[in-house]
């Protein structure tokens, strides 16, 4: 008996995960990808010995589905230090201080007592305790206001929000007003408390690459545009093709008004120009006045990210902060990044620019009242879709949706899993 075949449109992490699940259930798959590489938004290219992710990216070991499904050891993943370092310029002088996780680094977190209000540290600890035991499903069924209003309601001071929470979560939600649903904030905060931010040894594309190898690259057709017609028909290169089921694994509405954008500027700096394994948050972050949300040194975490003797510095500028300063070209973004870095790192003028990435369609908006969810319901007559746009904007949302989509295919084809 011939196996049923499913055509999957898109080789981002959701399309690949869905394909892997289906193969395990005895279903044949064909993945069609319009670009010349697999990975979708999780792409990495090598340039002059540096590994450049297409936009600074991390994996979170604390996301519940990822934790259960991804073998982080197989990816050679290494972690950032829990917490963050805040970098600010004040009175012409650069200052840095660490805000570590009070539960995992109680000793180093004591230094925060000298820089932060007691009430803010108490509120962080309270949030960590209350959200740490909340199930994701309950979080996604809960209240759906904006993150900003939730933080204010929770009693955090303006300086704490602006120096710590805003630059951190702007870099995660890719929007600076923190209009993203509080559900997302709670979910991400709880996951970060449970796990670590990690980087795979081979760059962020290492995970899609691993799955593509397991699926078999001959099942993936690159540089081919596909258009779904109905649940069992698609158009491939102008030709209509019949299949047992179509899965669409990409956002369909890629209009700028429904996805957030981000710029990443990569610099080559002498080794150890920035020490430590923390992510660095811009403590002066103020949209309309400056642009950098955060800075990371991936090569401090994974030496594979840079050639020996060099550091890779990744500067993240969220799209709305760039727009507020009318920055819309690689050159203007690079100049702005250099201007702000000069106040924070003495020798940053000597750093060489490697690349500027502009990701126009980086993350689906998950605003308050958008009903961000961790599950997907399928309608029998509709084409099966997966991807982060069907759940929430993260790798976790993408792979969870893919696993749901594969389950729906199995159900529709009447195969016992
Ligand atoms: C800069 C940046 C930083 C991020 N940081 C993080 C992070 O730190 N942590 C985190 O969890 N998430 C992060 N994300 C989000 C994460 O990358 C995405 O949630 C995830 O990669 C989405 O995967 P996907 O499969 O849903 O979609 P995509 O990766 O967009 O894949 C869709 C694929 O479909 C293809 N395609 C589209 N249309 C067609 C067509 N008609 N025919 C054929 N192929 C088509 C596209 O070329 C693409 O390869 C970040 C994203 C960006 C851009």
Bound molecules: flavin-adenine dinucleotide
Per CATH, the class of the largest domain reads Alpha Beta
Could you say what the CATH architecture of the largest domain is?
Answer: Alpha-Beta Complex
Number of helices: 13
Q: Please bin the fraction of helical residues.
A: 25-40%
Intertermini distance: 17 Å
Unreliable residue runs: none
CATH fold description of the largest domain: Polyamine Oxidase, Chain A, domain 2
Which strand-content bin applies to the residues? 15-25%
Please state the overall shape, judged from the principal axes of the Cα atoms: globular
- Supply the number of structural domains: 2
Structural features, described:
This protein is an alpha/beta fold. The protein folds into 2 domains: 5-43 and 205-249 and 386-412, FAD/NAD(P)-binding domain (3-Layer(bba) Sandwich), CATH 3.50.50.60; 50-199 and 258-364, Polyamine Oxidase, Chain A, domain 2. It is 32% helix and 25% strand. The chain is built from 13 helices and 20 strands. It has helices at 13-24, 64-69, 106-109, 118-132, 136-141, 147-153, 158-173, 182-194, 206-215, 298-301, 319-324, 330-344, 395-412, and strands at residues 5-9, 28-32, 44-47, 50-53, 59-60, 78-79, 83-90, 93-100, 197-199, 220-221, 226-230, 233-236, 239-242, 245-248, 259-270, 280-282, 292-296, 310-318, 352-364, 384-385. A 7-stranded mixed beta sheet has the order 8-7-16-17-18-15-19. A 5-stranded parallel beta sheet has the order 10-2-1-14-20, covered by helices on one side. Helix 4 packs across helix 8 and helix 6 packs across helix 8. The structure holds flavin-adenine dinucleotide. Flavin-adenine dinucleotide (FAD) binds next to helix 1, strand 19 and helix 13.
């Amino acid at each position: 008996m011939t196996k049923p075949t499913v055509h999957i449109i898109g080789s981002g992490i959701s399309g690949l995960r869905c394909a892997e699940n289906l193969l395990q259930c005895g279903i044949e798959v064909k993945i069609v990808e319009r670009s010349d590489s697999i990975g979708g938004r999780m792409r990495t290219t090598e340039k002059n010995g540096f590994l450049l992710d297409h936009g600074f990216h991390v994996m979170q070991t604390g996301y519940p589905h990822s934790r259960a499904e991804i073998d982080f050891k197989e990816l050679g993943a290494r972690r950032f230090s829990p917490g963050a370092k805040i970098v600010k310029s004040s009175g012409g002088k650069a200052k840095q201080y660490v805000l570590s996780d009070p539960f995992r680094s109680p000793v180093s977190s004591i230094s925060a007592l000298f820089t932060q209000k007691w009430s803010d540290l108490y509120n962080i600890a309270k949030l960590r305790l209350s959200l740490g035991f909340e199930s994701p499903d309950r979080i996604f069924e809960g209240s759906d206001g904006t993150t900003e209003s939730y933080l204010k309601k929770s009693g955090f001071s303006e300086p704490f929000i602006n120096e710590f929470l805003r630059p951190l979560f702007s870099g995660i939600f890719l929007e600076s007003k923190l209009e993203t649903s509080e559900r997302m904030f709670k979910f991400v905060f709880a996951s970060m408390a449970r796990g670590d931010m990690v980087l795979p040894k081979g760059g962020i594309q290492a995970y899609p690459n691993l799955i593509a190898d397991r699926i078999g690259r001959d099942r993936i057709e690159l540089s081919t545009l596909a258009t779904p017609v109905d649940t069992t028909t698609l158009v491939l290169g102008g030709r209509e093709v019949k299949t047992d089921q179509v899965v669409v694994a990409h956002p369909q509405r890629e209009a700028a008004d429904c996805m957030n954008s981000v710029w990443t500027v990569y610099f080559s700096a002498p080794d150890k120009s920035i020490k430590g394994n923390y992510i660095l948050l811009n403590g002066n972050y103020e949209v309309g006045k400056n642009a950098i949300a955060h800075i990371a040194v991936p090569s401090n975490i994974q030496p594979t990210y840079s050639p020996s003797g060099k550091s890779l510095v990744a500067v993240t500028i969220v799209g709305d902060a760039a727009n507020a300063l009318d920055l819309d070209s690689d050159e203007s973004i690079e100049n702005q990044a250099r201007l702000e870095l000069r106040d924070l790192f003495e020798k940053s003028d000597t750093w060489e620019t490697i690349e500027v990435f502009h990701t126009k369609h980086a993350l689906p908006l998950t605003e308050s009242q958008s009903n961000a969810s961790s599950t997907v319901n399928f309608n029998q007559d509709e084409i099966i879709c997966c991807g982060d746009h069907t759940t929430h904007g993260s790798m976790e949302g993408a792979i969870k949706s893919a696993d749901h989509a594969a389950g729906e295919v199995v159900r529709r084809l009447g195969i016992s899993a």
